[in-house]
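Task: encode each sequence below as structure tokens.

Item 1
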Amino acid sequence: MNQIGIKVFLLAVIYTFSFNVVQAQIKNKIPLSGNLNLDAITLSANLPKLKTPEINLSNGEKKSRLLAGVLSAILPGAGEFYAERYLKAGILFTVEAAAIATALIYNRKGDNQTNSFQNYANQDWSIAKYAAWTMQHVSDISPGTNIDPKNYKIFANVDGTTLGANTPWSQFNGLVNRSELNRLETDLGDGYSHQLPAAGEQQYYELIGKYPQYSHGWSTANFGDTDFHTLTQQFLLYAHARGLANSYYTTGSTAIIVVYVNHFLSIFDAIWSVDNYNKSLAVNFRVQSGNVADRIDLVPTLNFSYSF
């Protein structure tokens, strides 16, 4: 039973009890003759004229739609808590906390994975090896081409066509002229589809593990291969590691979208919850009286209505 029902019940009991006491006192003071009809008329004439009470109970406190919306915009579930919709408040707050935690965890995983595969590339992929292999396999990359690799000053003071499998590539990485290498990549036309970005750029780390043309820059690649489409285990492992980092970031981004959606849903739901709360139940309690021989019977009536 809610608070309004309890109040109505107690008021009815108290009023009825008080009135019965008054009736008993009246009957004790009036002399009766013993004639049923005559005594009934006498008692009825002497019963008090009742002014029956009317009691109105309602929840007059109204909630603010604006405040509920602002609270949920700040923290999903806060507007519902204000509107006394505690279950929904708990659900929305839990979704918010879980989404934020997921975003933080998976973005951190993405950062760690990115650092891992970039360090791997810095150690095991060589721009010098890639450039030298490209210069020595121009005809394999683009058959029928008339390109002379010696016309490209890719290595400072070094003829790239003379470098071999036993070259200490790390010592030659700093000698590569990337602009000249990009010019050769472009002139190869249908053979190579991309130009190598500057080392350390996001695109640099993406391309060397995505396109086969960069496969012979990896340390375990066979320098004597003639087909640049041959992929090494290093290339495949690196591609998988980079893809794993992207999947972590995708999960983190999805969680952030959930955070935004949860905020918007909570705002609208908080406003709707306040509207429902403001449909307060109004209770009208009235006691009606009726004379029955030597007594007055009290008949309590209740009227319910919703106010908007």
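Item 2
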Amino acid sequence: MLNPDLKLNPKLFEADAEVKATRAGYGEGLLQLGEENPNVVALCADLTESTYAHLFAQKFPERFFQVGVAEQNMAAIAAGLAISGKIPFISSYATFSPGKNWETIRTTIIYNQANVKIAGHHAGIMTGPDGATHQATEDIASVRSWPNLKILVPCDSIEGKKATIAAGETEGPIYLRFTRDKTPIITTIDSPFEIGKIQTFWTSEKPVATIFAMGYMLYYALVAAKELETEGIQVLVVNVSTIKPLDENALLSLAKQTGAFVSVEDHQVAGGLGGAIAQWSTKNIPTPMEFIGLQDTFAESGKPAELIEKYKMGKDHIKAAVKTVIQRSARL
């Protein structure tokens, strides 16, 4: 069942459940930060409305910088602003930032530990019709090895707002990952959020596996868990909103409790959420694991729901992965 302690959306599984894009939470959170702290500034690379940075730009035009199609310049300018005491947020499509300007971010922001927040929008195959050139599905892998970078992937627009605000209040470079299309609202304004902490959204008395999910894919994991329960299979579903640093204490507890893992992400399985958990597991407590995500392929252009099914990332595929990993766990 949904964890009552987290005050999640009670209408989550209903047909008319509210939907909203996670990127909207970024715009709302950035606007609130701007109202609370005059040192917060925003930069965008000619995608102001797409990234919802227009909310900040309209209210604080003197603190907004439109750099045009020049993502490298945007990163370098932001680094300078940060070193000067400002708190810059830079936003573009994730394929362009941190994609196109990867080296500039690495050298000017990460190497100097500049207090810049990198908002990568339109990430994953949820970008749908725009095709592989605009579907950032390897962005986490490309930045996860950067020293001392935090990576946040909110599960819905409400958590997107909380993550943005928390990022602005936390010193150091942070990568925030957002998606384009509207997705179900999973949390509420009363649900807790903390950088570096994972939370169990679906609980069971006798769980035999743990499903780790990030971003909007958490919804598919929760639906899968609900259906598995009717089949007599109890699992836990964990929201991993912080990919780096991982909540290692929670991972250890979950590994001991269930002894079987499934990762669910709208990202390449190589180097993403599953890779991070598997790397931890190998060192600390080896645990059988299955991976839901893109399997070493780019995605086609299409409707998000169709792509989720084509690339075997939907609820039925999650259920199948759980059953597989349970069998593997039983053989140990």
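Check on item 2: The chain has a mean pLDDT of 97. DSSP finds eleven helices and 14 strands in the chain.
End of task.
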